[in-house]
Fold these 3 entries.
Entry 1:
Amino acid sequence: MAGGKSGTVRRNPAAEAEDEIEAILRAALTPDVSLGAVLKFVHEGAGVVVIDGTKKPNEVHRRDVPADCTVHVDPLLNLAIFQRHADQGTAFRQGKIRIVGDVSVVASLRPIMLRQSNATEDGFRE
């Protein structure tokens, strides 16, 4: 095969980023925290990751459902933000993030993510 090893399957980097984002959110959204709303991350060309904070405990899934707040962002940038390799404020000011709906929903995720990163040694991952 030209350009690669036979039998090697390469995944889409955006899909891999979504897998990691979903795992990070599941780890951070412990049963004692609740967003109280639905937050959707739309990753253009890849898919969605949704936090349904109206359920107890929060539910993280990839079904495209209506949300109280929708964040449009590249999945690789979103992963970098969750891993604290990129600053969400800077990305927003540069127009790399677009938020539709109740901005307070996405703002309420930040302290949850910071609490998780302070509880672990390597960013938002357990």
Note: Residues 121-126 have pLDDT under 50 and may be disordered.
Entry 2:
Amino acid sequence: MTLARTAAAAAVLALGITVAPLAGAVAAPPTDTPCAKEQGQLDKAQAKLESLTAKLATKKEAIAEAKAEAKASETAQEKRSARAAVASAKEKKAQVKKAKKFQVQRVAHAQERLDKCLAKTPAPAPAPAA
């Protein structure tokens, strides 16, 4: 039984090694444009920044809701629970705000790298007029 498992595992591994280079060749994007890597990094950083901006807005809404709930609570137990929810929401907002701050720096650095790359790359020669 273990011999059969070993043989099956070897066959799957061999098949995976044979198929893996083909999958990598197909999945690789064309890099014929200058500074494609830098542009991709900038696009990815900007997308993450937009995501964090949206997340920060939802955290602000969560704080407002928790504060409203704390204000509306009647018993001492409800007030303690609501205050804990406000504190938790504020902590989460602080974490997202910090992440957003760092992401803004990443976008700035990615933009600098792209600008440097574009400055190094010679402008394409205009096509001759016939």
Note: DSSP finds three helices and no strands in the chain.
Entry 3:
Amino acid sequence: MSEFTIEREEGETKGRYVIRIDGHEAEMTYTKVGLHQRIIDHTGMPEALRGRGVGEALVQRGVEDARAEGIKIIPLCPFAKAQIERHPEWQDVLRG
């Protein structure tokens, strides 16, 4: 698990994971599709947090939560898609 504190904010149809460091906020947003799928649609990273593993930590948390909740992920966000492709151990949560 990541060394970052990751908060999860969830609404009825959308949600996001957030990491706040030194006044900067990185996020990964998702949209719920029914009860068993999530579309990861955006990862936002301020320049000050780039290169620190923050984005990877956000995607990892999304994968871990999806696995624990029996949810499949559709990674439309290019960054999230690339991270999941780089980690074969995360690919069990992809919608197949």
Note: Residues 54-69 form the longest helix (16 residues).
